[in-house]
Amino acid sequence: MNTAEKSWPNNTPSAPIKNSTMNRHRKNSARSGGVYIVVLGTALMVSVLGMSSLVLQRIQNRQLSATEEIRQAQLNAETAIELGMLILQDESNWRTARTNGRWFTARGTGAGTCTLDVVDPIDANLADDDKEPIVLLGIGNRGKAEQRMKVTVDPIKIPLDCLKSTVAAGDLVDMQSDTLRANGLVTANQVTANASNVYGTVTAVTVSGSTYHGTSTQVNASTLPQMPAWQTAFDYFRTNATPISISDLPTVTPNLGRNTGIEGIATEWTGDPPWSLLENSDIAQVNTFKRGGTHSLRVDDRDQWYSGAAQRVDDFVKAGVQYNIEVWVYQDHGLSRNFRLTLVTKGTASGSPLFESGAAVAVPLGVLNIGWTKVSATLTAQPWSGNLEYAFVLVAGGDTVSDDEFYLDDLVIRENVTGRFIYRQVLSPGVNPYGSGTTNAQGIYKIDCGGQRVVIERSRISGTLLLINPGANSCVGDGPIHWAPYVAGYPALLVEADTAADADFSIRATNRSLGEKENGVNFNPTGSTHADFGQDSDTTDIYRSQITGLIAIEDDLTFQNTPLVRGQIIVGDDIANCSGTLDIEYQPDSLLNPPPGFLAPNGYRRRPGSATKAVLP
Q: Is residue 311 part of a domain?
């Protein structure tokens, strides 16, 4: 037995070696299965993650799509509101032509549709009041998304452009040896100034002449400011005015004399008038003889036949104007004597007074207060040079032998003019001196003149006066005036006619103050409060002569003397044939508070902070 064979039985590890190999194969198989499982699990996880990503991407895409639709629906809702705003601006009759509620439905926007509801939140009636706000509800749709937007819109008053002008004429402003002094814009089709002065910023299609104290610009007619529609501009005031019958206006001026019946202390009379060549007389209030009332004025100790009693008329006399003057005279002793009336004027640039005397009138001897005789004349106030120094009416002898004592009573002085007069009156929301005295809370009054001339002078008006169909030469007369609208922004004066060419007017006011004492009128009684003087019962206040506010005249305007307007003047045709100086101080009351008839079509604006999302119903 060899060694190997001998050793075999002792070499037992040979068998375990074979078993180890088999175990190794088993272990390798186990490892391979685990890896497969790991790989399979990883693949599954990757697949799940991939599927999750796809799902998430789909969800995200859907979310993005929904967000885009919602956003577009919001834009469509806004589009509906913008279309509504456009309708408000473009359709002047939308309040009556459209109904409260749905205005359009599902109108295409190119990316969805829009719908609009318009309602009046006050009373659900669009047509009843153009000052009421409205609510616009815009509904936008895109795909499955719907969004609603609501906004409140307020009407705003847009004034006509002409209210920005101090003077606006539809055609011509023609100054010939005149002065037009404006502190703002003067607009017209044509402005001419020959030997005249024009102040202000002139804008016109044609500008001629050289005396412009300010800029002057020629423009196209299309750039001139928008003027009122004259056919309808005054409709509101026609409708809301209290009528005054033309027949209730007197046909003569009031008696301009003062203390005419010698019933008060005779301080308005003098026996020593300012003309130095006139001799003196003594005057006294007596009750021995009288024509009316309880007293008369005795005139005695006359130094000359032309000595007598005088009354100053400085406060109302007008150069070149005729006056009808009368007085009653009585003689209680002596013979029949002649008496006459004289009207004397003197200017500061005149060397001596100018005068005109009436014809001598014989006054017989009276007995027992019987025999009073009227002495009358129509006399012209001779035009003076410079400022008026003095003016008076003299009652004196009519010939060289008439220097006896006499008595006078019941003086009358009236302008020799024709027409209907608003003279020494107060017209306001609380005072109407005509007819039944019906007043108007806004101070709006109208007079259909029926072609008769109307003269307004020495009065205070707190309100708006509409003159319809005025006659030729209707005017604010040659004297002081104090006039302002009662409602801020409303016109002071409106002039129109059935035939536009007849709607002419003249402003002839002077710069003389309007005094209560000299006119014998309380211009701020109960019911007519004044901003400065309030209301009272005295006659001591003095008012500046001026017209405050808007003046609108359908056809032509002329001016004379030295009127002052603090506001605006709008004229449908021409300002021409004038004399004197017209001062116009621009005040924007009517621009800031445009009156009815002077508005462009209403504007509309979103109320700040009113835009909100609306929920579905």
A: yes
